[in-house]
Amino acid sequence: GQLKPASQRHALAVVQALFKHLQGAGESTNQPVSRGTVAAIGATDLTPVLRVLSDGDRALLLAHIDRAERTALGRQQTTTALPAGAAQRRLRLVLSLLCATGLRLSELVNASTSDIVHTTPPKSGRVAWLTVVGPGQRVRQVPLTPALLELMAAHHADAASVGALPCPAPIVCTLRATSGSEPSQRRLGANGLYRLLKRFFLQVSAPAQAAAAPMQKRTVVANVDRHAAHLGAASTHWLRHTFGQQVLAAGQSLPVLQQALGHS
Fold it and tell me: Which residues contact 2 (CB under 8 A, 6 or more apart)?
């Protein structure tokens, strides 16, 4: 079928940016896509959205998790067996894993501890490898750092405090176990994991949007609003894009990135 208006606007904005770059490089070429052409289908912003999180974005997200965990640890836990700060520790694990490995949402949901192979002795700070089966049954190995393994162990300890975990255990678990439920039901599903992160991104973006409201300088308001909207629009797949950008920024080649992302 026909592309939706949002997809049409995005495609035209990308083409427009391409020809603008060629013109800036001194190429003798016309601009075939005018602003009027894009505006005709309701474009409000001709700047293509870069669906990645910057270092500053990630630092802001982690700082928010840290503050929430400190607040949770300061409260008295009297009505639940779940350790204080367990939700924040799980969120930190998910955010760190997706940014550091480039896993697809489905790949993280289906991963379990049986897919992890520990190396002896550790090499280059990588003490384990996670075997991942992607689309088309393509298998790849993803390195796990000691920091990621520590986050995983802390999350599993939290999850086990409210009910038995299966063996092998899912990488990301539910933090509640209903009466009489089987240990195999402790895997957090794709929908739940997506909503967990999406809700978090919106939560972090809300204070930034509120802070912009009373400001007088329009440029400042616009910048704060844009940053808040950027975080609010983020999703699990943005973290995969973020990983890809980090790989390229580190000087790795496209074939290396292709292998790391599990692309055909």
Answer: none
Distance (Å, rounded) from C-alpha 108 to C-alpha 254?
23
Residue 141 near residue 131, CB atoms below 8 Å? yes
Q: Which pTM was predicted?
A: 0.75
Whether 162 contacts 175, CB under 8 Å: yes
Q: How many residues are there in the chain?
A: 264
What tens-digit pLDDT sequence spans the chain (264 residues)?
Answer: 888 888 888 888 888 888 887 877 777 667 666 656 655 665 455 455 678 999 989 999 999 999 999 999 988 665 668 999 999 999 999 999 999 999 999 999 999 999 999 887 666 566 899 999 999 889 999 999 999 999 999 999 999 999 999 999 999 999 987 666 677 789 999 999 999 999 999 999 987 656 555 544 444 444 555 667 788 889 999 999 999 999 999 999 989 999 999 998
At 247, list the tokens.
């790989």
**Radius of gyration over alpha carbons of the chain, in Å?**
22
Which residues contact residue 158 at a Cβ distance below 8 angstroms, ignoring those fewer than 6 apart?
Answer: 82, 83, 86, 89, 90, 175
